[in-house]
TrEMBL record:
<dbReference type="GO" id="GO:0015031">
    <property type="term" value="P:protein transport"/>
</dbReference>
<dbReference type="Pfam" id="PF15469">
    <property type="entry name" value="Sec5"/>
</dbReference>
<dbReference type="InterPro" id="IPR029175">
    <property type="entry name" value="EXOC2/Sec5"/>
</dbReference>
<dbReference type="GO" id="GO:0006887">
    <property type="term" value="P:exocytosis"/>
</dbReference>
<dbReference type="GO" id="GO:0000145">
    <property type="term" value="C:exocyst"/>
</dbReference>
<keyword id="KW-0653">Protein transport</keyword>
<keyword id="KW-0813">Transport</keyword>
<comment type="similarity">
    <text>Belongs to the SEC5 family.</text>
</comment>
<dbReference type="InterPro" id="IPR039481">
    <property type="entry name" value="EXOC2/Sec5_N_dom"/>
</dbReference>
<dbReference type="GO" id="GO:0006893">
    <property type="term" value="P:Golgi to plasma membrane transport"/>
</dbReference>
<keyword id="KW-0268">Exocytosis</keyword>
<comment type="subunit">
    <text>Component of the exocyst complex.</text>
</comment>
<feature type="region of interest" description="Disordered">
    <location>
        <begin position="209"/>
        <end position="230"/>
    </location>
</feature>
<comment type="function">
    <text>Component of the exocyst complex involved in the docking of exocytic vesicles with fusion sites on the plasma membrane.</text>
</comment>
<protein>
    <recommendedName>
        <fullName>Exocyst complex component 2</fullName>
    </recommendedName>
</protein>
<feature type="domain" description="Exocyst complex component EXOC2/Sec5 N-terminal">
    <location>
        <begin position="4"/>
        <end position="200"/>
    </location>
</feature>
Length: 230
């Protein structure tokens, strides 16, 4: 986790320099006779934004490795002892909440982008795992439907339309082997046992939406509000 924090520290430092220092430095250079201070400002800003994007990509790759290791447990050879979602779904949720918490004190404006990328990585890897699952068993089919439903509910704020359609397509193919009793009990247990984690994920999305509506905290790595020396 030290590496992750180093990445976030660098991003936070770049953010501070872009938003509070760069324009002031270039303005003073211009006031003291430096020619082309506007060009210096723009060139420096562009370079820093590119570097920030690169560091954020490294951070996402680092977290994606953890996501991959969690999904590897989704082999469906050992189903839950009682009606519940699979452990890997819970681990994904906890991992995502940790990332959310870790980023909050460093660079909260990129949380939505990072979590969105991690959810995409998780789903793509999960689809690869599901391709190897034997769906002839009603228990396996029911468990997959439970897990996919819980996944979409937990990460609803980060699941795109294409992801949602893919999840619905898989569930639709398995519905004829669904044990509805197990399905309902499993989701009830999931919502009860993971209530705090669900609340955290949903509150995160609500806060991000509120920030975006207020015009702050954009999710684009390449963008920045400080665009000139004035």
């Amino acid at each position: 986790e030290q590496l992750s924090r180093r990445f976030l520290t660098v991003i936070a430092n770049i953010e501070f320099f872009l938003n509070h220092s760069l324009s002031s430095i270039c303005r003073r250079l211009g006031d003291n006779g430096l020619k082309f201070s506007e060009q210096v400002f723009k060139h420096t800003k562009d370079k820093l934004v590119i570097y920030r994007s690169s560091i954020l990509t490294h951070y996402i790759k680092n977290k994606s490795t953890q996501i991959h290791s969690i999904i590897e447990y989704a082999n469906y050879q050992h189903l839950p002892d009682d009606d519940d979602v699979s452990e890997f779904v819970k681990e994904l949720m906890l991992c995502t909440v940790f990332v959310q918490s870790e980023m909050a004190s460093f660079c909260s404006k990129f949380i939505q982008q990072v979590l969105g990328d991690l959810v995409k990585v998780a789903l793509e890897h999960l689809f690869n795992v599901l391709a190897r699952v034997d769906f002839s068993s009603s228990n396996h089919s029911t468990q997959v439907i439970v897990d996919l439903t819980a996944f979409e509910e937990a990460f609803q704020g980060f699941v795109t339309t294409d992801m949602s359609n893919a999840l619905k397509s898989i569930r639709a193919r398995l519905m004829n082997r669904l044990d509805n009793g197990i399905f309902k009990n499993a989701l009830l247990n999931f919502r009860s046992r993971m209530a705090l984690t669900l609340d955290s994920l949903h509150q995160c999305q609500t806060n991000l939406n509120d920030n975006n509506e207020d015009g702050g905290g954009g999710t684009s790595v390449g963008g920045d509000n400080n665009n000139n020396l004035t």
